[in-house]
Amino acid sequence: xxxxxxxxxxxxxxxxxxxxxxxxxxxxxxxxxxxxxxxxxxxxxxxxxxxxxxxxxxxxxxxxxxxxxxxxxxxxxxxxxxxxxxxxxxxxxxxxxxxxxxxxxxxxxxxxxxxxxxxxxxxxxxxxxxxxxxxxxxxxxxxxxxxxxxxxxxxxxxxxxxxxxxxxxxxxxxxxxxxxxxxxxxxxxxxxxxxx
Length: 196
Hints:
This protein is of the alpha+beta class. The protein folds into two domains: about 1-35; about 35-185, no CATH class. Helices cover about 15% and strands about 40% of the residues. It is built from one helix and seven strands. It has one helix at about 1-35; strands at about 35-50, 60-70, 75-95, 115-125, 130-140, 160-165, 175-185. The protein has a seven-stranded antiparallel beta sheet with strand order 1-2-3-4-5-6-7, with no helix packed on it. The N and C termini lie far apart (about 65 Å).
C-alpha cells in the first residue's frame, strides 16, 4: 500500500514538474495581454480658410478620437493596436474627400476627412544592445518632422506600413533604419494594411 502511494506521489510530482514550464508560459502570455496600457486621445479642431477663387470661406469643426492598447512584454515582444475616428461637430462648410465629408466644391479644402480607420497596428521586439524592431503600421517621426513625420497638425495623422529598427546603444546617438511599403497620408481613405 505504501509503495503504491509513493508511486502515485512520484508520478504526480513528475507530471507537475513537466507541466510547470508550460503553465508558467501560458500565465506569462495572459499576463502580458492583460497588463498592458490603454491610451485615449481626444482633440477638437476648428479651421477657417479664406482663399482667393472661392465664393465661400471654409469652416471646419471636427473632433478626432484615438483609442489604442499596448500589451505588456512577453519575451521582449509587445503588440499595439490603435483606432482613429474623425467626426464633424458643428460647422461643416468645407470641401474634403471622403464619403462622410461635406464635399462642397465652392468652398476651400480642409484636409480633415471624416472617417474611422486602424491608425496603428504593429508588433515590436526589444532586441539586445538597446535595439527596438517594429513591424506593421506605425508612427514615424524623425528630427523635427520636416521631411518624415506624422503631419500631427491634421486630425488624421500620416502613418507608415513599415519595418523599422532603432538602436540607442551609443550615448547621444540614435541609429534608425526603416523599409516602407506604404505611406498612409492625411486624406488617404482606403487604408488597407500593406505589410512587407
